[in-house]
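Bit of a strange request maybe. I'm writing a small parser for structure token strings and I need a real example to test against, not something I typed by hand. Could someone generate the tokens for this chain?
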Amino acid sequence: MICWTSATTPFGRKVRMFAIEKGVEKSIEWRFIDPWNDTSLQAHNPLQKIPTLETKDGMQLFDSRVITAYLDTLDGPSLIPSGAARFDNLRFEAMADQFCDAGVLRMREGLRPEAQRSPDWVERQRGKQQRVLDAFEAELDKLGSEPSLGAVAVAAALGYADFRFAAENWRATRPRLAAWHEAFAKRASVQATVPPGA
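Reply from user aminoacidic:
Good idea to test on real output. This should exercise your parser:
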């Protein structure tokens, strides 16, 4: 299998962490690219977005949620539980992904010429992120400490918060979430995927 990603995308990091926890990371060739400038990805993903996974039989999968769902079907422990816990995990993944989406929108807005930037737009995205962090804190009991899709997605989102928005100090008002992340961040999957410069 081949996975196109970058070392700084939180979505790619989620997939890499998931693959490590699943025990399939060594069966994947990781290709690190810049999707903004490398048009070769279009041959595998018409959206030219990362992560993109090519399976052994040549199937092209994109969107980190689709990729993690596929990886969970491979040999190894399932990281997506069944029953009600499945939907808790999917909700955590959705919140984590939307947190990261809002962060990417904030970052891209900051790259526009200053006269074209919208402070209201940036604040709207920041507000989404703050509400997601509050939801993580409030619902932490459903997340648990064992590796799962939800836990990996939340860890990737919190790592992105530390990487791109450290000055906002999300830990200050979310002590339970901070303690959870401190413990989970010791896992090999988290340590092996820290973005350069983080």
